[in-house]
Amino acid sequence: MGKKLRLAFFQFFPRIGDRKYNEEFVVNYMLENSIETDGLEIVVFPELALTGYDLSREKFKALAKEFSTDNYSEFIKAIAHVEKKRGGRRLWVVGDARKGACDSDESSCVYNSVVLLSSDGVVGYYDKLHLFFKEKERFIRGDKLGVFEFDGVKFGTLICFDWIFPELSRLLVLNGAKILLFSANLVLPYAQNAVWTRAVENRSFVVLANRIGRENNYTFTGRSRIVSPRGLVLAEVDADSTSYISVEVDLGETSSWITEKNNVFEDRHSLLKFKEEL
Ligand code: ACM
Q1: Distance, CA 130 to ligand 1 centroid (Å)?
Q2: Can you say how many angstroms the Cα of residue 72 is from the centroid of all Cα atoms in its chain?
């Protein structure tokens, strides 16, 4: 038996370009639907949940925010309110466009990011490392791994297309993450299955929070899920429902021992000897 906590996702349809609507929708939904807990609950929201997805670089520049505690005061108040009403500690992992410093000639740049929010304020953020398709014209890519510790739980953050690079999930886990949190606007219909593999091959829990609906030529595929290190799908929803699902998990299941004689990380010795040839 290990430490217990709750993992959750919120799947919904963000309204494109309407930050005010999306912020209010998310806060109100969570205020009304949060569940009771004594311990920690981590809730993951979709990629760019507060802005929508298929916007020009100029529009993202206008909508992006600096990730400061002041800029998320309504969220932070809502988290504190939920903690008072339903108990527990809360961490919300929310996809948003981040305004930040960069090396280009411009005074600020926009990143496709997640912001980590608790009742204490902004806990951290991660900027997407692997930009998908037109995102390359719209955002600056990140340059740091998203490994965090909150209330004694270590986890890694990823954003959507990061799923197709197994090295990233592996690196997060080798850096101590026991849980992989994917904030997504998935469009390729096989990504949900690949994310299941990230859980099993890394002996980690996976939370995938995907969005639903259409924007221009993009159809987002929903089917958010929570997967255990042994490949059990602990929660899954369909491709078009607004859903918040929370499940209790035991971090003891993330042991990297598969049998008494097999450790999924230590047994890599047979591959590491070929490293020079890669
Ligand atoms: C994606 O990375 N939003 C497909």
Answers
A1: 9
A2: 18
Ligand 1 atom with minimal separation from the 53 CA? 3
Q: Scanning the structure block, which residue is given the tokens 């990011």?
A: 113
Q: For 50-60, what is each residue's pLDDT tens digit?
A: 999 999 999 99
Report the separation in Å between the CA atom of 132 and the middle of ligand 1, taken as the mean of its atom positions: 5
pTM of the model: 0.96
Q: What are phi and psi of 215, to 5 degrees?
A: -140, 120
Strand partners, 250: 4
State how far the Cα of 94 lies from the Cα of 114, in Å rounded to an integer. 5
CATH assignment at residue 241: 3.60.110.10
- Domain coverage including residue 261: 4-277
Separation CA 105–CA 97 (nearest Å): 19
Number of domains in the chain: 1
- What is the C-alpha separation between 258 and 273, in angstroms, rounded? 22
139-157 tens-digit pLDDT: 999 999 999 999 999 999 9
CA of 37 to the centre of ligand 1 (A): 32
Kindly list the protein residues whose Cβ atom lies closer than 6 A to any atom of ligand 1.
47, 132, 160-161, 185-187
Cα(16)–Cα(24) distance, integer angstroms:
14
Q: How far from each other are the two terminal CA atoms of the chain, in whole angstroms?
A: 39
Ligand 1 atom closest to residue 132's alpha carbon, by position in its atom list: 2
